[in-house]
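Structure (tokenized):
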């Protein structure tokens, strides 16, 4: 198996329940389970070879042959990621050069929106515009004089570009990354003096001076649950992205329209009859409807996020709420979309981890919207 040595560029963050590592060379953050944490601890203590296998097998009460297979698999993964000396660092593999610069788009849709008093001009290729413009249609102000110009176009190599006032912000083939970069750029424009703690994929609401974040991947029921909580008297703060300011994790308003997917349409329409006539929106090969918040939502002040919830909707599922650890929470966030700054630094990760360890986090599952709302309202922290 050979000797394993931790790469000098790797930093560990103290979290119970697993292993959280930052490779400062590749600017990548990794979360591993408790078995991997034990292997890391043994390596850090100088164990190697048969001694490492023996201690690992004794700790977990498993045969040495199985322990060798487990440890070998973990070490191989770490070497591939560049977390051990002698491995290939993540992000250092040769990349093909970009093929040329920006090509001239054939057709572009242009419009101006005013968001929190800031007029912004959009110029978006028609291939992308149908997935962007509907989100901002209710904010369009054709006669406003724009202070910022944003362009989304395609490079000759096929990658999508986001350009702000003539300066390239991102070049990517991933629409999710493009959408995140667009929202981040807009947030920086409308909240100019804010230092960001994190941007998370999710929805946010507030009541009685405290905020609740609903985080998780697309299809987990975040927007549907947010719609139910709005009807229950919560104030709307954000959808698709929860923007948290440093150092206290205040939710900054980003009340984009709630995207209601076909599987939830009947349930939400029963509570919001106007949704049946709402604008259609194409997302991830589905035709969703957009539930547009009131204009006042953009004028809300920041609210501290006090509870983080990871919802999971499944038809017919029993209602269940359980407390999860800070490590479980960050592992879930890393599996989806979270931004902790660019470049990603040890200081930024440490600040987020320190904040997260003081935030109660829960996982809930439910099969009826009323059950999901009831579970949220039953949280007392």
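Design, position by position:
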């Amino acid at each position: 198996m050979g000797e394993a040595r931790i790469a000098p560029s790797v930093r560990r963050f103290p979290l119970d329940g697993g292993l959280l590592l930052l490779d400062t060379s590749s600017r990548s953050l990794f979360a591993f389970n408790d078995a991997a944490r034990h292997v890391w601890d043994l390596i850090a203590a100088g164990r190697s070879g048969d001694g490492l296998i023996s201690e690992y097998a004794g700790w977990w009460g498993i045969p040495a042959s199985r322990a060798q297979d487990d440890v070998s698999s973990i070490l191989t993964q770490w070497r591939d990621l560049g977390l051990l000396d002698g491995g290939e660092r993540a992000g250092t593999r040769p990349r093909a050069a970009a093929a040329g610069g920006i090509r001239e788009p054939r057709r572009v849709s242009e419009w101006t929106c005013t968001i929190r008093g800031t007029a912004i001009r959009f110029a978006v290729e028609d291939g992308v515009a149908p997935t962007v413009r509907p989100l901002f249609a209710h904010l369009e102000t054709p006669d406003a004089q724009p202070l910022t110009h944003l362009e989304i176009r395609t490079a000759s190599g096929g990658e999508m570009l986001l350009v702000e006032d003539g300066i390239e912000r991102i070049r990517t083939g991933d629409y999710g990354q493009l959408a995140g970069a667009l929202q981040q750029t807009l947030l920086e424009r409308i909240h100019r003096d804010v230092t960001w703690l994190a941007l998370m994929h999710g929805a946010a609401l507030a009541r009685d001076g405290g905020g609740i974040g609903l985080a998780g991947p697309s299809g987990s029921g975040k927007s549907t649950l947010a719609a139910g909580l709005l009807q229950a008297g919560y104030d709307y703060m954000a959808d698709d992205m929860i923007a948290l300011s440093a150092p206290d994790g205040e939710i900054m308003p980003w009340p984009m329209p709630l995207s209601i997917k076909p599987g939830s349409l009947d349930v939400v329409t029963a509570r919001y009859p106007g949704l049946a006539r709402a604008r259609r929106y194409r997302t991830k090969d589905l035709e969703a409807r957009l539930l547009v918040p009131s204009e006042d939502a953009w004028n809300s002040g920041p609210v501290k996020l006090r509870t983080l919830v990871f919802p999971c909707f499944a038809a017919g599922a029993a209602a269940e709420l359980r407390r999860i650890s800070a490590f479980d929470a960050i592992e879930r966030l890393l599996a989806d979309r979270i931004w902790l700054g660019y470049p990603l630094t040890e200081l930024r990760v440490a600040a987020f981890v320190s904040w997260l360890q003081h935030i109660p986090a829960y996982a809930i599952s439910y099969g009826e919207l009323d059950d999901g709302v009831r579970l949220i309202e039953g949280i007392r922290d």
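Reviewer-requested clarification: Residues 64-81 form the longest helix (18 residues). Confidence is low (pLDDT under 50) at residues 90-102.
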